[in-house]
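Hi all, long-time lurker, first post. I run a small reading group and we've been trying to get comfortable going from sequence to structure in the token notation. Rather than ask abstract questions, I figured I'd post a concrete chain and ask someone more experienced to write out its structure so we can walk through it together at our next meeting. Sequence below, copied exactly:
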Amino acid sequence: MKSITVQQLHEVATTPLIDVREVHEYEAGHIAGAVNIPFSTWRDRVEEFPKEPFHVICELGGRSASVARKLDAAGYDVTDVEGGTAAWIEQGFPVEH
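-- Answer (accepted) --
Happy to help. Here is the structure in token form:
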């Protein structure tokens, strides 16, 4: 499974980003352009994941790593974002509400 840091994510902002946090977490603040597919529903919505390369993020990295491992095994070109949205915010990068 591939992974990147939030700094690397910030530098490659054109790659689609899937946020697997739950809706209330996403609404509290998310990275601009991120699409929310909650962890609790992602298996039922797998057809919504991009066919092209994409990144997946959660709050701290556990849920996104789990999703990324499973999608990678299924043939998706997915990269996990280490440290998640918490690390993004800690670095001072902006979020939308």
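A couple of things your group might point at:
The beta strands are 2-4, 17-19, 35-36, 54-57, 78-81.
Helices lie at 6-11, 23-28, 62-73, 84-90.
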